[in-house]
Specification:
CATH class: Alpha Beta
Shape: globular
Bound molecules: iron/sulfur cluster
Oligomer: single chain
Distance between the termini: 16 Å
Largest sheet: 2 strands, antiparallel
Length: 71
């Protein structure tokens, strides 16, 4: 089960669309530059793609948040 989520700082995001290229299907960016996170909590198999998106986002607007199991 996926125990991580994607967080975006919308003040930083400038709609470059790098994330969409790195993790297709998880992010979409409209022509006007509006980012949508299609899957906020993707399956683990997509984590490498999301890590690439986080790494290459030119404004560092993305991060992966690992969730701790609740007691
Ligand atoms: S790559 Fe970064 S700045 Fe560009 S749309 Fe994605 S989150 Fe926004």
């Amino acid at each position: 089960m996926s125990r991580w989520v994607i967080a975006v700082d919308r003040d930083l995001c400038q709609g470059h669309g790098v994330c969409e290229n790195e993790a297709t299907g998880i992010f979409t960016v409209s022509k006007s530059g509006e980012l949508t996170i299609v899957e906020e909590s993707p399956p683990d198999a997509r984590r490498p793609d999301v890590e690439q998106a986080v790494k290459y986002c030119p404004t560092h607007a993305l991060k992966i948040v690992d969730l701790t199991d609740s007691p």
